[in-house]
Structures are given as structure tokens and as C-alpha cells.
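General statements about sequence and structure are easier to judge against a single worked case. When preparing material for the folding task, we compiled for one chain both its residues and its C-alpha cells. The amino acid sequence and the C-alpha cells for this protein are reproduced below:
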Amino acid sequence: MIFDRTARSLIMIGILLLSGCAHTTPAIQTATPTVPSSPFDEQPVPVIHSKVYRTVLDNGVVLIVLPRPVVPVVSFRIGILAGSAKDPDGKAGVADLTASLLNRGTTHADALTIFRKIDDSGGSLEADAGRDMTTVSGKVLTSDLNGLFSLAADIVLNPVFPKQEFERNLEQTKAGLMDEKDHAGPVARNLFYKTLYGNGAYGHPPTGTETSISRIQYKDILDFYHDHYTPDRTVLTFAGDITPEAALELAKSTFGTWKTSVPAAQPSTVTPGQETLSPSKTLLLDRPQFAQAMVMMGTNGIRRNDPRFYSALVMNQILGGTTTSRLNHEVRQKSGLVYYIYSGFDAERHAGPFFVAFQTFAPNTPKVISMTKQILARMKSQPVSAQEIQTTQNNLLGQFPFRVDTDDRIASLLLFVENYHLGLTYFTDYPNKVLQVTPASAFSAAQDLIHPDHLVTVVVGPIKKTGLRPNGRDVLMQ
């Protein structure tokens, strides 16, 4: 009994002690740790066993990163989504001149200091303007990335555009355009685009023309920079030995406080190349000093983000996009009539042309033009075979890894993907959509986009030797 009473007392004491503890010490709760949300959207890039990351800074600057720590090197691009398509009316070449002056001095460094900093980094830094975009490109060892990228940001954010440098670059551009007159390729290409697009966004070369360059004033450079170099039009891409977090920190430290008073850019509704097809037209540009004739012929085409793009891509590879294509096989290899011949779609932000280009001994010109039209007509009227489709798909998929085999190519491709609104899924979309092309869809693209009876044809060379003669629709130019 004594044992039972003692035991009960000890139990009661224990209960009271535990009860007291319950009132004075809170129970320990086990909480699930909070995982910080990533600022990045990400997608796999199976072809190089990596991922691509994208985010947008508060001021609208887009950042895209693809880590590839193979060697301690980083390539980067600063893209301004404005190129020669935004040149003022009648002043083609403004975007190109603006880009050429970026490294000629900033509020922090003169041109000599800039060039010395580039040399000291052991890297490279250059700027150029295309039709849809101005690009500052750089490549450097990872250890020197912060310095070179900060310099690149400085020339974009704080250029001073020295007037003396403007005048010097203007004269250099004029000299370059004069030299182009002696080269049939640029002359034919520029006249072809001018004929198709007139005063539209793609109607002039990015470097301008002799006439347009003579109209450009210093103020045009300042206005172009003010209107188009803005955060909401800027894309930063990095590829190589860098993490997304490090790239974001660098982007914020250089571009994060950039502000602008210019209204946000509105999506363009202009789509050159979608106009009604015009009658066939031939322009003959006489260059009697040439032995060969350079020919470009084509029609309005498609935008890069057109749903028909991949069917058109496969179809064109069969037609004239490879050394085994129909044009190459029949005109060059079998007939021996041309030095080269190829076809393509210049599919950009707006609709560029479908074209065929070739160079031939002048007397062969009429025959090659006729053969080319016949091959185009067959492509439009006769479906391609399943074997041709499969062979072309294999070829395109085999080439794709070589588009992402260097940091430079990746950084440029990331800019391309953003510029044309292709999305982070591009790296899986490309092979998948190529494989989805069928003989029927390729044939449909040919029927939609090839028009042998509506070709603009430009011939540059010794016109008398070609045997071509103006016939009322043709234009002979000196």
C-alpha cells in the first residue's frame, strides 16, 4: 500500500510539473522553409545540356542568360531594337552612323581611353546597326567581364557624339558607298530591295545611299539616339561562364537606373512585303566594265514569326538552300551555267523578300533566268516527295547544334530569339517544328510564296553582252 501511495504521489507531481511547463514554455513548431521565388523564367536547351533564363528589369530592360561554363569566357550582346528600318524619311544611314559613333567618347571617357580599356581587357567590343536592331557585341575572360561590360554600358548610356567624329564618319561612309559601285553584289541587292519596298522600312541599305547620306545632319544623330535608345527597347544577352544571378547583378548595376522620358515603344503594325503582288518587272543596270552579270529575282515574302516559316524553310532548302538543291543541281552542276545560285527568305521583323540570286557569264543570263523560272514553276505546281522532306529535315537538324557551338553564336541567337518574339522554347520548338513539316505543308508554302509570274528581276552587268533588251516593262539604267 505504501508503494502504491508513493507511486501515485510521484505520478501526480510529474503531471503538475509537466502541466506547469505547458503553461510557461510555448510548444516548438516545425515550419516549412520558404524558398525564394526566382526572378527568371527558364527553359531547357537540350542540344547543349543547359538552360536559358530570362527576366525583365523594373525599367523594361530584358535580360537573357545561357550559362555554358566550358571555358572561362563570356560573350555578351546589348541589343537596341531599332535599326535602319527606323531611319528618318529620306535620311537612310542615320542608325548606322549613330552606332558607329558610340565608341567615340562618353561623358566619362574619350575615344582613346575607350580603346585602351578594350585593349587592356584582352577582349573585343564593337557596335553596328542592321535593319531591325543595333548591337553592341563583346567577348572577354570571365575575370574581366565586369570592366568590359561596364564600358559597353557606358557607350550605350552616355555617348557624347563628338561633332568632329560625326563629320569624319560621314565622309568614310560616303567613300564606302562610292566603292560599292564597283561591286555587282551590293549594287544588285540594293536595287532589288529598293524596287520591292520603295520608301518602306526595308527599301534602303542600312549604310544608306549617296543621296541620303548627303542629307544627314548632326542633329539627326542626337534625335535618333534620344528617340530609340531606351530601356524598353534594350535586350542584354550573356552566354558562357556566367550564372544567371551574376548576370542579373551586373545588369542591375549598369542598366538598372536607366530612365527615359520617351513614351514606351508601341508594336509596329507595318508589314512590308504583304502588299498585292505587282506585275513582273526587270531592271537592267549597265556596268560594261564587268565580265559577269549579277542577278537577283524575287517577290514579297514573309515575317520570321509567320506560322508558315518552317514549311517555307524546308521547301526552300529543297529548292535552292543547299548545294544539293534543285536550282544548284540543275543550273550549276548539270548545266554549268552559273558560278553560284541559291534562293532564300529574308524573314525578319517585317516581311522581307523571297529571292533567287546568281552570278553568270554575261551571255548566259537569259538562259539562266528562263531555267530558274521553270524550276520555280515546278516547285509551285508539283508536290515534293516524302523522301525529300525527310532528307531536308535531317540536314536542318544536323546543322542546328552548330548554331549553338560557341558563346558568340549563342549570345547572338538569344538576341535574335527576343527580337523576333520566338520565345524561350525556341531551342525545342525549332527541331520539333522542322519535324512537323509534311510534303503537303511544304507544297502549300510553295503555292503561297513562289510567284514566277510576278518576279522583280535585277540584272547588273554588261547589258549588251547579256543579249537582254528593254521591252517596255524593263528599265535600262546607267
